[in-house]
Backbone:
């Protein structure tokens, strides 16, 4: 066997990093010791590092100089040389990606990158998810649309080095020079027609010791795989039902386990009054009080549901029991940072708008679920986890063990959207398994998710813009949010990377508390709006929160873009023309112009319908979205059982510049999905807080986008970026989509919406019970067959 | 504990379980058939959609006691056999359109799509936008647009 590893940094790496301009395609990789070829590379991209080495002008907003992508990429620096590609004796490649596949397609795109560099067919490349590897420090966190940005060069270097070593080995065998050889789908061939397979060469190409090797990467114009549309590598498993998620794994004796949860958000269990009765119920094997509720383990999940519904629990209702939407909004108003510009300076006009964004559930369709087998002095966990190292640390602390006694296996997830950054489910499963002394297969009931699961925080965004004639002089935005929990490890990763920054930038960023830092790193208005300030303040730490497919951006973007439209209206300019006049970034301009053209901006629309256009710049790229919306009464009032209908977006055109694109098919999917999320944020999906409890308990009251909301016409336009480094995609479309729908709604109805989603004011469902906390399983399913 | 017999993906199975256990848990927890997914347990999300006697149903909301010995239950695992092929045309369309993202909802989506197309064909029509709008299955990744395209494509080969 042969293994190679690649690194772009090591003790000598600083030298390479310091002069990347000498040859931007020259990198350092490593051949690791092993019986077959193993190559490795560091995750720090010299290109990204070079991009940071710049002068700091006085005016630009921070993200133009350095953004969250850069800091995440920098955070990967200490783990040089630790990701490796192995070529086995069959000539197949193996790579354990230190990231989580949650549906975003990174296994496919990573396979493509390796196929490109190795010259191997994609089905001979096996990309798996690495278990928690504490030695990777911060470099095993999936978030911020950062995977491709941070791993692209390292994966290429490891792959290219492996191919180089295989060529050298073949040259020895055939007694020719490497120049006379070429690779051809998993083989090395010479001019005489001799063929050697990678499998035959792997052992010969291997090394007994670590060797440091210089690698030259081929330029993007020679790519044959990268940049071509490829289907997901797990598509067949997904459509045949053989793709395994955490609850599908066959772990012996890990029986179904669920938790009876409190009637208020963040309440706590005090005692189970009828434990003996519950233990006598059919199928029940164990009951245990854990921090979050009363866990019950049974032969089936159906029996868990029955047991939970029979539990008589004394609850501590917690700190939130008297809080509702309005009281939290009032707290937010009090916490808002004052504006700088006085109200209506002499001779000027002013727009002052305040927007409110309600709590939203970030739950995926696969609920929180984890298998835990906790023994006397060791534990093994299986779960979808985007920050597995932190989960491992937290689980070890909970169990009173050393982290190296806890094995954390990362399972492909049924969606994340930020929800699986936290290890809540894995920690809970570990607690239950320890308390019961047996393995558990723990799953949240759907009703638990919006009520006790992570929420995107409620927030407000106030915007004040000052205009003199048709010029915008000032644009101030004050974003005030319930505290966003960053305890998933993102915080440590980012703040540690601050030390790596050039001095002036480090000074400007170093004084901020972490949430302000994230806000500052991600928010950028790509417009000339005179004096621009965007500030964040956060208040109230009592909720279980996290970020849902973007941290602050969608809400900030909706508020800013609606204000842009309002400026346009007041000065009598077309919204597109105003944007084109104020945009100060050529790439953003190209994307906006492209969607305006494809979407036929400005076409005549019937009364009650309208177009809307909005844009967003983040993740080393940008998106622009044009929609058409139908707000006519016949559409808004159409009836569908247990559903909200409301305005219908009838067409969407999404333009995206995501830098160098690895997989256009995957990118298109991310844009479509991002749109469905953004549209739901504006029109339909939220959680209502009443007396400390969230009313929503399933998809028939938490209104995520459904087929009857989907635009019948949808098009994704992928821009040629003119750069050869990749950007992020997973979250990129959410903000611009939410904003475009909001802008279209305002233009169709003549009213600027100020509370999101727009249907939040009306509760159109009967809330399910809080005690018991899970609804009964219906029995009438055969009445609905078709 | 009563015994229940029914036909699962073409084979007769017998399982000892209480009458009121829902079919989803019989399939997943007792028989190890994990294609049908749990997403809500109350017949809302449709992630567990399977077929009973050729029609779509949601096993989370049907008691095993209501299943008769001759009832034929087909899950995603048994769908290709219903057409005697490695993959059902709807699964092929799903792959061709690269529909799945996380994949969690897709078994249910495909089973719902097949039943919907059969229903429309029984009624002598072809799939319309209104038919597509009527699908209740949730996809939290938002693959809806490709689902619509794949259903139209798959229907042509059914």
Residues:
């Amino acid at each position: 066997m042969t293994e190679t590893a690649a690194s772009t940094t090591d003790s000598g790496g600083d030298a390479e990093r310091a002069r990347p301009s000498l040859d931007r395609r020259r990198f350092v990789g490593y051949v690791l010791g092993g019986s077959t070829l193993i190559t490795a590379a560091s995750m720090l991209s010299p290109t990204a590092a070079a991009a940071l080495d710049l002068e700091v002008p006085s005016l630009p907003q921070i993200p133009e100089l350095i953004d969250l992508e850069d800091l995440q990429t920098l955070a990967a620096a200490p783990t040089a040389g630790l990701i490796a590609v192995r070529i086995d004796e069959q000539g197949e490649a193996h790579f354990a990606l230190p990231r989580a596949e949650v549906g975003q397609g990174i296994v496919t795109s990573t396979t493509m990158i390796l196929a490109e560099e190795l010259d191997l067919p994609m089905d001979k490349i096996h990309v798996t998810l690495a278990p928690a590897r504490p030695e990777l420090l911060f470099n095993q966190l999936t978030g911020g649309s950062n995977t491709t940005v941070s791993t692209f060069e390292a994966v290429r270097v490891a792959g290219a080095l492996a191919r180089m070593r295989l060529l050298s080995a073949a040259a020895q065998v055939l007694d020719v020079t490497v120049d006379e050889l070429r690779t051809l789908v998993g083989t090395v061939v010479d001019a005489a027609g001799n063929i050697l397979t990678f499998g035959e060469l792997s052992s010969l190409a291997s090394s007994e010791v670590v060797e440091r090797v210089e690698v030259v990467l081929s330029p993007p114009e020679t790519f044959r795989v990268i940049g071509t549309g490829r289907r997901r590598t797990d598509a067949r498993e997904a459509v045949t039902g053989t793709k395994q998620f955490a609850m599908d794994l066959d772990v012996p004796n890990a029986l179904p386990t669920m938790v009876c949860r409190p009637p208020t958000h963040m309440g706590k269990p005090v005692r189970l009054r009828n434990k003996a009765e519950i233990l006598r119920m059919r199928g029940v094997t164990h009951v245990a009080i854990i921090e979050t509720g009363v866990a019950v383990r049974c032969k089936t999940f159906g029996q868990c549901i029955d047991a939970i519904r029979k539990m008589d629990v004394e609850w501590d209702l917690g700190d939130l029991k008297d809080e509702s939407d309005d009281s939290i909004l009032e707290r937010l108003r009090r916490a808002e940072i004052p504006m700088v510009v006085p109200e209506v300076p002499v001779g000027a006009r002013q727009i002052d708008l305040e927007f409110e964004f309600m709590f939203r559930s970030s739950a995926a369709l696969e609920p929180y679920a984890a298998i835990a087998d906790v023994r006397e002095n060791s534990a093994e966990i299986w779960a979808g986890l985007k920050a597995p190292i932190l989960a491992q640390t937290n689980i070890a602390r909970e169990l009173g063990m050393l982290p190296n006694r806890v094995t954390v296996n990362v399972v492909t997830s049924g969606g994340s959207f930020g929800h699986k950054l936290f290890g809540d489910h894995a920690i809970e499963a570990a607690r239950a398994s320890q308390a019961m002394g047996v393995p558990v297969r723990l799953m949240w009931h759907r009703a638990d998710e919006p009520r006790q699961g992570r929420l995107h925080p409620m927030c407000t965004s106030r915007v004040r813009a000052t205009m003199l004639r048709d010029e915008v002089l000032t644009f101030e935005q004050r974003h005030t949010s319930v505290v966003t929990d960053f305890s998933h490890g993102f915080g440590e990763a980012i703040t540690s990377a601050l030390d790596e920054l050039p001095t002036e930038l480090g000074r400007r960023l170093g004084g901020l508390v972490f949430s302000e830092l994230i806000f500052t790193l991600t928010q950028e208005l790509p417009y000339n709006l005179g004096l621009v300030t965007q500030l964040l303040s956060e208040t109230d730490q009592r909720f279980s929160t996290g970020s849902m497919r973007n941290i602050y951006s969608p809400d900030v973007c909706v508020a800013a873009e609606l204000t842009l439209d309002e400026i346009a209206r007041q000065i009598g300019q077309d919204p597109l023309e105003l944007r084109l006049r104020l945009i100060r970034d050529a790439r953003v301009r190209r994307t906006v112009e492209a969607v305006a053209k494809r979407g036929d901006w400005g076409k005549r629309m019937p009364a009650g319908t309208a177009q809307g256009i909005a844009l967003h710049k983040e993740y080393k790229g940008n998106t622009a979205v044009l929609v058409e919306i139908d707000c006519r009464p016949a559409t808004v009032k159409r009836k569908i059982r247990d559903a909200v209908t409301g305005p219908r977006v009838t067409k969407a055109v999404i333009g995206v510049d995501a830098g160098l694109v690895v997989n256009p098919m995957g990118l298109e999917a991310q844009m479509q999905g991002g749109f469905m999320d953004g549209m739901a944020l504006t029109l339909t999906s939220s959680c209502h807080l009443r007396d400390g409890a969230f009313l929503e308990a399933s998809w028939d009251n938490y209104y995520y986008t459904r087929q009857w909301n989907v635009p019948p016409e949808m098009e994704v336009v992928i821009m040629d970026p003119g750069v050869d480094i990749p950007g992020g995609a997973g979250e990129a479309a959410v903000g611009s989509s939410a904003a475009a729908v909001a802008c279209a709604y305002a233009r169709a109805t003549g009213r600027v919406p100020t509370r999101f989603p727009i249907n939040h004011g009306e509760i159109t469902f009967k809330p399910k019970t809080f005690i018991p906390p899970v609804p009964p399983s219906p029995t009438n399913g055969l009445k609905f067959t078709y | 504990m009563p015994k229940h017999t029914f036909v699962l993906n073409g084979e007769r199975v017998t399982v000892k379980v209480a009458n009121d256990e829902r079919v989803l848990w019989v399939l997943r927890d007792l028989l190890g058939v994990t294609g049908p997914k749990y997403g809500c347990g109350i017949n809302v999300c449709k992630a567990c959609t399977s077929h009973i006697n050729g029609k779509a149903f949601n096993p989370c909301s049907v008691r095993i006691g209501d299943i008769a010995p001759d009832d034929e239950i087909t899950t995603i695992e048994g769908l290709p056999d219903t057409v005697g092929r490695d993959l059902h045309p709807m699964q092929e369309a799903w792959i061709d359109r690269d529909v799945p993202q996380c994949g969690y909802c897709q078994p249910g989506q495909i089973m719902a799509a097949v039943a919907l197309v059969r229903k429309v064909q029984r009624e002598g029509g072809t799939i319309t936008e209104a038919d597509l709008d009527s699908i209740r299955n949730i996809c939290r990744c938002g693959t809806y647009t490709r689902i619509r395209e794949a259903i139209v494509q798959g229907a042509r080969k059914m």
